[in-house]
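Justification of computing resources. Each target in the renewal requires a structure prediction run like the one illustrated here; the chain below, 117 residues long, is used simply to show the kind of job we budget for.
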Amino acid sequence: MPSYIDTNEDGDTEERVAEMGKAPKWIKVKGKRAERDFAKEQGGRGMADPWPLASDAMGCHPDQVDDFKKRLQQAGAPTDFDEHSRPVLRNRGHRNKVMKALGMCDLDAGYGDYNGK
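Resulting structure tokens:
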């Protein structure tokens, strides 16, 4: 049986299992109406808006976080880092600035993405 994820207006979620085609249109999660969250069912963040995004590839050693922050600030791309020393990228433009500042490129870059050139 498939699992379904419902989210209420506060962002509280509940995962449940139901027979295909027999899941209710909505349920209550923490006392508030919650409807099916298709984006979370399809991989967590959904396809439309993956931001903010923490990048493993652009991460650094914990001892280097302050140096990376300073370097990115000087390059005009102020960036926060998460608890795993990964830069938290706010949007596509911010990602492009960070990649350029760190001398990285995206070999699968799409239109408008920084590819090192």
